[in-house]
Design a protein that fits this description.
By secondary structure, the protein is α/β, with parallel strands linked by helices. The protein has a single domain (about 30-255), classed as ATP synthase, F1 complex, gamma subunit (Pyruvate Kinase, Chain: A, domain 1), CATH 3.40.1380. It is built from seven helices and five strands. The protein has helices spanning about 5-60, 90-110, 125-130, 155-170, 200-205, 205-210, 220-295; strands at about 75-80, 115-120, 140, 175-185, 185-195. Strands 3-2-1-4-5 form a five-stranded mixed beta sheet, with helices on both faces. Helix 2 links the parallel strand 1 (about 75-80) and strand 2 (about 115-120). Helix 1 runs antiparallel to helix 7. The longest helix is centred in the last third of the chain and has 75 residues, at about 220-295. The radius of gyration is 28 Å and the shape is elongated.
């Protein structure tokens, strides 16, 4: 049985842990709100690009671009998977890695078991997880050192341009992305999204609805604009994915710190109760010794 001194020491340690987890929860919450604000700032940009493409598609013109052309045969696929650079976010990275493995299985079921797959992990924790995969047919590609989950717009642009070049040069036939979509502070959704080739159905459903009924004059010409806008759309998608991932990571960390804080409180209550019982028992024993000594006298 633990002594009073040992229990007092444990209570102090748990109380300190409770304060630390509470502070970390507040910090993560502030970071989450900052990531939410960054995500909201990206929405008008992507919305405007989609509106431009919608107006182009509403015109009676046939459009072509290498970014929307499907390769005749899919032999190699690149998968970008976003995790976190820091820990203490619960099962966040593990859940994403499970979705990655599920996506790999889906792709090989669709295109054949001999499909070559290049994995582009973003985030230190995800790099560690992917490096432990036992499947030797998966090729883990090292991304540039400046590409992290906290990368700014310029770095994201550099990254998506490199992926675009891989696709246009026929080094890969398909580019996918696995990440955590931020829905709310209490809900994040695992997603696997195709980046390249750009699916024209992305614009056909909501794009036509956004198209203005007013006539437009295109300068220089509609197809040139279409070819210029598509890379911007791709960039906006990738920027939003990075922002979604940052917000989801902080939301997961808030939940993890909340859980740790709740557990620390419960443990503190149990230790305090045990300490009080042991102290009461010690006092009772001392009183009995005193009474026993008086009776003998």
């Amino acid at each position: 049985m633990a002594t009073l001194r040992e229990l007092k020491s444990r209570i102090g340690s748990v109380a300190s842990s409770e304060k630390i987890t509470g502070a970390m929860k507040m910090i993560s919450s502030a970071k989450m709100h900052k990531a939410e604000a960054a995500l909201r700032r990206l929405v008008p940009y992507r919305s405007q690009i989609e509106t431009i493409i919608a107006n182009l598609l509403s015109a009676d013109v046939a459009f072509t671009s290498p970014l929307v052309e499907h390769h005749t045969e899919v032999k190699r696929v690149a998968i970008v998977v976003l995790g976190s650079d820091d820990g203490l976010c619960g099962a966040y990275n593990v859940n994403i890695s499970k979705r990655l493995l599920a996506r790999i299985s889906e792709l090989r079921s669709q295109y054949g078991s001999g499909l070559d797959i290049d994995i582009y992990p973003v985030g230190k924790k995800m790099i560690k997880i992917v490096s432990r995969f036992t499947d030797k047919t998966l090729n883990v590609v090292s991304v540039a050192d400046d590409i992290t989950t906290k990368s700014d717009g310029g770095q994201v642009k550099k990254f998506i341009n490199a992926l675009e070049a891989e696709f246009l040069e026929n080094h890969v036939d398909l580019v996918d992305c696995v990440y955590m979509h931020y829905h709310s502070a209490g809900k994040q959704i695992l997603k696997a999204e195709q980046l390249l080739p750009i699916d024209s159905s992305t614009f056909s459903a909501e794009g036509v609805a956004k198209a203005s009924v007013r006539p437009y004059l295109f300068e220089p010409d509609a197809e040139s604009i279409f070819r210029s806008v598509l890379p911007l759309f791709l960039l906006s998608v990738m920027q939003e994915i990075f922002a979604q991932n940052r917000a989801s990571e902080q939301a997961a960390r808030v939940m993890a710190m909340q859980s740790a804080n709740d557990n620390a409180k419960k443990l503190l209550e149990q230790l305090q109760l045990e300490f009080n019982k042991l102290r009461q028992q010690s006092i009772t024993t001392e009183l009995l010794d005193i009474v026993g000594g008086q009776v003998r006298d």
